[in-house]
Amino acid sequence: MNRFALSGLALLAGVAAAQWAGPDLAGMDHSTSPGDDFFQFANGGWLKATDIPEDRSSYGTSAMLAELTTRRVNELLVQTTTQSSVPGSETQQIGDYYLSFMDEATIEKKGLTPLRPALARIEAIANRHQLAAALGAGLRTDVDVLNSTNLHTPNLFGLWVAQDLDDPNRYSPFLLQGGLEMPDREYYVNPSPAMTAIRQQYQAHIAAMLELAGFTEARARSAKVLELERRMAEVHWTRAASEQVSAGNNHWTRAQFDAQAPGLDWQRFFTAAGLDRQKDFVVWQPSALVGLSQLTRSESLDAWKDYLRFHAVQDASPYLAKRFDDESFAFNGRVLYDTPEQRPRWKRAVDSSDNALGDAVGKLYVQRYFSPAEKVRAEAMVRNLLSAYAARIDRLEWMAPATKAIAKEKLAALKVGVGYPDHWRSYAGLKIVRGDALGNHERAEAFDYRKNLGKLSQPVDRSEWVMNAQLVNAVNLPALNALNFPAAILQPPYFDPNQPLVMDYGATGATIGHEISHSFDDQGALFDAHGRLHNWWQPDDFAHFRASGALLAAQYSAYKPFPDLAVNGEQTLSENIADVAGLNAAYDAYRLAIQGAEPVTAAGFSSDELFFLSFGQSWREKTRPAALRNQIITDGHAPAQYRAQTVRNLDAWYAAFTVNPGQALYLSPVQRVRVW
Length: 676
What we know:
Blueprint: H1 3-12, H2 38-49, E1 58-60, H3 61-81, H4 90-102, H5 104-110, H6 116-123, H7 128-137, E2 157-163, E3 171-177, H8 186-189, H9 193-212, H10 218-235, H11 239-242, H12 245-248, E4 250-253, H13 254-260, H14 266-273, E5 280-283, H15 286-298, H16 301-316, H17 322-337, H18 345-369, H19 372-395, H20 401-412, E6 415-419, H21 437-454, E7 475-477, E8 482-486, H22 501-517, H23 539-557, H24 573-594, H25 607-618, E9 621-623, H26 625-634, H27 640-643, H28 651-657
Parallel strand pairs: 3-5, 6-8
Antiparallel strand pairs: 1-9, 2-3, 4-5, 7-8
């Protein structure tokens, strides 16, 4: 039976999954040897039979589960709109936010009117001091925590309020490079024909947005905006450079900004940003900050005002009349990701509600869809993974006892959150007004910004979550030495009481192991048990660790999905280390879970085969070419098909599938990267 495909259809219909006893047989490609291409072997049938939905740039197991979760959340949101509620209550906030976003008639009738006050403020900018104030007022805590070292934000800088890396007892404000609308500096500076064509289409998009907003000479204005962003991109750090934690941990006093980054009126900037009393900051990409500051003085005020006008319209487009939203999707969806159709408005309403009121929505989701029993089951898996990881540390022949002791101390101190946070966030004081879609979005952003600034005067909370419970994902927070495993990822097909336990360990167990392993990847391994950044390694141990990482980077850099573009092994190294170490730990943890009992077999597969098949099928995904290029350039994760090939580094996989020399994935024992 086609387990994943059939269960996916049932789940999307809101029907309980049937009882399945093994892997998705119909979704496999039995004509491909697992030793030649394990991803194709595990998923070839599914790949051949599955089309990417028109409103998605990629599709697979994770997307299937995200679709189910979106439908479930939408039902919960709709229910809040029919309930009587007290003004200011979470029910009122959720219901009115959702209804306002869905009220296309009112949004259409208002046209550009909701944005006119912001455009008037830009028009009033008469000098560089006022420009600095406008840029400071636009500062937001809009860093993607999953990719926090490389910021994509249209604001000149991004702010991330997090635990200080040198002093784990306090929060610090981290300033990161920003200013770009396109996903990465490569889109601005890469001379290839493909990137050149995208830049031309981006300029046309800028002009179209300005024309829709009523600005004259839009083509000339768009050229100035693109050139300004190109110059920003030139001073940006690359993705790989931005991931080097030691290089990014730069503490600057307030006075250093004026001395070391001249150009921007920093006093006006910080005052407008609400940071005028802050004495010190962490500047992640210092040369980029210097370069961006200089541009605020060297580039014309007219260019900066057109830049701000375009970004004001672009950022507000989901909450404006349809013509703005359609033009935004034409570039950001079709051009950048090759996605044919815009997602239905109700799906976008769910996303926007999650962004604005994530914990309030998550509370409803957990009450309905995440049972106490599933939380207990997941926590038991976490304990087994932690035990397995500790045992693996003990067995490392190359690591000195002193290094092992600190590694195990760090593992023991890991704060693991399963399902949802210990304490739900309050949205008291956030004003949500029915019929004011853009205003609701802006007030929610400002509310979140003020909340994050407030942390600067509070003690560090290691239990704080950075993900919503209704998100299909997981994260490791090295500075907090903490993990978040949201409820939405802890459900079928990844985590299913109806499937053999070994399959849970191959899928969700590998995910848990992956996130634990991030505490010991090439960057996470630099933090101690308290989240302090310092080198706790013996020199010979760290040299061995770095050498293993170099081998893994070379392994992934050999993957080349396009003739002109390969995976960047250095850029994806942290994730690749976590994949290898996490899968090893999950394999050991399953043995702990069955406590010496005879491993199960199902559908003619041994326990080990089931484990690896479950892992391989958890990575099934199809991606449109433009989106795949985007991922390779901007993402710290390797494409799914190569993550499935992680198995080639585990001895047990070779024995399970009789993989021999001469097969494409075969690595000799000395070539297999073991890391942890």
